Amino acid sequence: VxxxxxxxxxxQAGGSLRLSCTTSGSISSMNVMGWYRQAPGKQRELxxxxxxxxYINYGGSVEGRYTISRDxxxxxxxxxxxxxxxEDTAVYYCNLVLLGLGPNLAYWGQGTLVTVSS
Length: 118
Hints:
mainly beta, seven-stranded mixed sheet, four-stranded antiparallel sheet, elongated
């Protein structure tokens, strides 16, 4: 299983970006996809996740500004980020957790840098 994240870049405060994460490989029907971010000197934190069943959860600092979605036919997850703030600057990682009868399997993408200028 491989994850490829893209869409990061430099944007001014108040602007928008859309991240994409495309998966490849054998993926179980029950899974959780998510976006995490890590700012310099800080721990990695959850941004948003979406399950194969459609449940969505957002980290507190982005709710109302970010929207997570997935297109299962394209094996792709998206993160629409609006009203960006300088504190949203971080490397954004996509994550996939495969659920099944055995241990959960977690995979990470390579990260894409989002820089928000003030």
